Amino acid sequence: MTATLTIAQAGPALTIQDMGRPGWRAQGLTKGGAADPVALYEGAALLGQSPELAVIEMTGTGGTFTADADIRIALTGATMAASIDGDAIVWNASHMLPAGAKLTIGGTTGGTYGYLHVGGGIASDTLLGARASHLSAGLGQPLAAGDALPLAADKSRETGLQLPRDSRFDGGTVRVVASMQTDHFTADERKRFETTAFTRDPRANRMGVRMDHDVTGFSAEGGLSILSEVIVPGDIQITGDGAPFVLMGECQTTGGYPRIGTVIPRDLPRVAQAASGTAIRFEFITLEQAITLETQHRQDIKALGGKVTPLVRDPAKIRNLLAYQLVGGAISATDNPFEEEH
């Protein structure tokens, strides 16, 4: 059975996203896709389906949604207030959305990008091999009130599962490796870059995140003589005013600003999800360390299914049930409660 999800009210930046469309860089198109791919894996683990299925990405705030049949949903990424017909529901969990019920998703309370997953995935038309919107390339468009999205058939009915909240929404340390022009920055300048406290600029978007700071701007030796060449998501360009600019999934494919380093892929969602003003520091690591971290990250993603737990525990499945104090306030049927103990 298939269904339709209708958007009754939409926030200003809702788009359909998936893992993006690799293989088009030579034609000037970066991969794009969800700003926080980890959230897609989390939604897949909660619904027991492929992470390749299309979802709704919500930037800053969500919207109001209804379905014409009972459907499963999962909510991941930046935490947002959510309810079904006025009853609050848990974030980073899966739920059943009954036909005609109103799913309301408000603003973020931690992070930047929230995700609405549906059982079976959104079955919108594919373009260049993906359903992801790539707004800077003119592929797709923001979702709006009145849009009716077709959903593919769902193979399961299981809901009521949750995952623990990840720390990638809290800023912190972001690891980088040396890039094409890292040697154009002196050792002192690279050290100053590592010891500087940055915050995410509120003007960040899916193309890039500018990092604010309170120190003198950064510069490279011969920075104005660098020719434009291939750049990739994660590269940290030092723009003309000396501020670092971390390139994201919808960045351009060539650029001429000097790059002080490149954020390793597993830490790029930490940059994407940092809310405006969130503190971030950069730390250089070796390529060997980066490979080790990426290998571990891929293993952790594969193990997400093992971290899913029920929202409400079934007593029949609790192994140490007898270790719990299940009954309180028990009294004797023969003792007189008014008699004093001696």
What is the percent of helical residues?
Answer: 10-25%
Structural class: mainly beta
Number of DSSP strand runs: 20
How many whole angstroms does the radius of gyration measure? 24 Å
Largest sheet: 9 strands, antiparallel
What's the mean pLDDT score? 92
Cα separation of the termini: 71 Å
Strand proportion: 25-35%
Our count of helices gives: 4
Order of SSEs, N→C?
Answer: EEHEEEEEEEEEHEEEEEEEHEHE
What's the helix and strand layout?
Blueprint lengths: L2 E8 L3 E4 L19 H11 L7 E5 L1 E7 L3 E14 L2 E2 L4 E5 L5 E16 L29 E4 L9 E2 L9 E6 L9 H9 L2 E3 L7 E5 L16 E2 L4 E4 L5 E4 L6 E2 L3 E5 L4 H6 L5 E6 L2 H16 L6 E2 L32
Parallel strand pairs: 11-19
Antiparallel strand pairs: 1-4, 1-9, 2-3, 3-8, 4-8, 5-6, 5-7, 5-8, 10-20, 11-18, 12-13, 12-19, 13-16, 14-17, 15-16, 15-18
